[in-house]
Design a protein that fits this description.
Number of helices: 17
Keywords: Chromophore, FAD, Flavoprotein, Lyase
Pfam families: FAD_binding_7 (PF03441)
Strand order of the largest sheet: 1-2-3
Cofactor: FAD
GO molecular function: deoxyribodipyrimidine photo-lyase activity; DNA binding; FAD binding
Shape: globular
Strand content: under 5%
Order of helices and strands: EHEHEHHHHHHHHHHHHHHH
Organism: Metalysinibacillus saudimassiliensis
Length: 370
């Protein structure tokens, strides 16, 4: 009998470890009991319910335990041996992207045949906290419904416009492995813009492999001395969506209501947090870790460090998003109207010009550090 852990790969299709075990012996599936403390815990529990049914059809019992050893997340390419011509890790995404595209995507692994001696287990029904019910109402258990509803032809031109329905909303399912990058490549591989984002996810895992402290320490060492002004009260204003900048506040309220935020708006909210408010990017990352259904440590750490200007291939520090211009440029009025009440009238917590100048002065204090 073989035990197979399901943690980062909550699927029976395109699961190499599971398929191999099913060919060798009788299999028992084990997974960790979700704590139900974060948004992703709730999403993971819903996906485990779905996985339990799929495993039952294959005669495989699913047992929940307090702790399990995590399985490795699935990536689109095997980048473990990829390095620059100098033999060093890639620090820029575009060369990494090109190197990946010279590789071949592996073949899809078929769902295994059912076991001859079927087993049955009752899936434990955990009591969801009251706040979590809204997430259960927003997110489908079946990733196939989300895949079918994704109009990828609009993705390239529309993904930056929050008011459109051009994004895939597949990130939560990727984060827990309910679907694999290879499955998405098989379906949407003809769309270069979408595949580029899957490779950005690969780049995050590649970077974390070389820099294990990606989620806690700046990769650009001079930023360890950056004069952030941590203020819990200021952070709570941002968390509640009461900054007085409609696009930022709409994004934070979408996050609270759904466990999700449009990617363009995430960048604006993160930039506002780290530069307008001079709050440590690690604090923002921690808040997202609790509230995002698609939280992925490597991807989110890379993204926060990119916005904060502290990571590899990061946005230049002087690039400070103006939330008002971003709202206009990306035609986000309908998005804002969806998430803010009609009587929204909040005084801006900071003036954009003054906040930008303050951020740049702070950067000057560490600019010459190496």
């Amino acid at each position: 009998m073989i035990e197979v852990t399901f943690h980062n790969n909550l699927r029976v299709m395109d699961n190499a470890v599971f398929a191999s075990a099913m060919r060798k012996a009788t299999v028992i599936a084990v997974a960790q009991t979700p704590s139900l403390e974060t948004a992703q815990d709730i999403f993971r529990y819903l996906q485990l319910q779905r996985l339990h049914k799929e495993l039952a059809m294959l005669g495989v019992p699913l047992v929940l335990r307090d702790e399990v050893e995590e399985d490795a997340a699935s990536l689109l390419y095997d980048s473990r041996e990829l390095t620059t011509k100098q033999g060093t890790p890639y620090k820029m995404f575009t060369p990494f992207y090109k190197a990946c595209r010279h590789q071949k995507v592996r073949e899809l692994i078929a769902k295994p045949a059912p076991q001859k001696a079927p087993y049955e287990t009752e899936f434990p029904q955990l009591a969801l906290p009251q706040w979590a019910q809204k997430l259960a109402d927003v997110w489908s258990q079946d990733v196939r419904e989300v895949v079918e509803g994704f109009a990828v032809e609009y993705y390239g031109l529309g993904r930056d416009f929050p008011s459109t329905n051009a994004v895939s909303r597949l990130s939560p399912y990727l984060a827990v492995g309910a679907v694999s990058p290879v499955q998405l490549y098989q379906r949407f591989g003809h769309n270069a813009s979408f595949i580029r984002q899957l490779i950005w996810r690969d780049f995050a895992y590649y970077t974390q492999r070389y820099y294990p402290t990606l989620a806690s320490e700046p990769l650009r060492e001079q930023f360890a001395k950056f004069p952030y002004q941590r203020d819990v009260a200021v952070q709570r204003v941002w968390q509640r969506g009461e900054t007085g900048y409609p696009l930022v506040d709409a994004g934070m309220r979408e996050l609270y209501a759904t466990g999700y935020m449009h990617n363009r708006v995430r960048m604006v909210c993160a930039s506002f947090f780290t530069k307008h408010l001079l709050q440590p990017w690690q604090d923002g990352l921690d808040y997202f870790a609790t509230h995002l259904v698609d939280y992925d440590e490597a991807s989110n750490a890379l993204n926060w460090q990119w916005v904060a200007g502290t990571g590899v291939d990061a946005s230049p520090y002087f690039r400070v998003f103006n939330p008002t211009i971003q709202q206009k440029k990306f035609e986000a009025d309908a998005y804002v109207a969806k998430w803010l009440p009609a009587d929204y009238n909040v005084q801006a917590i900071v003036d954009h010009k003054a906040a930008r100048e303050r951020a740049l002065r702070a950067y000057e204090t560490i600019k010459g550090e190496s």
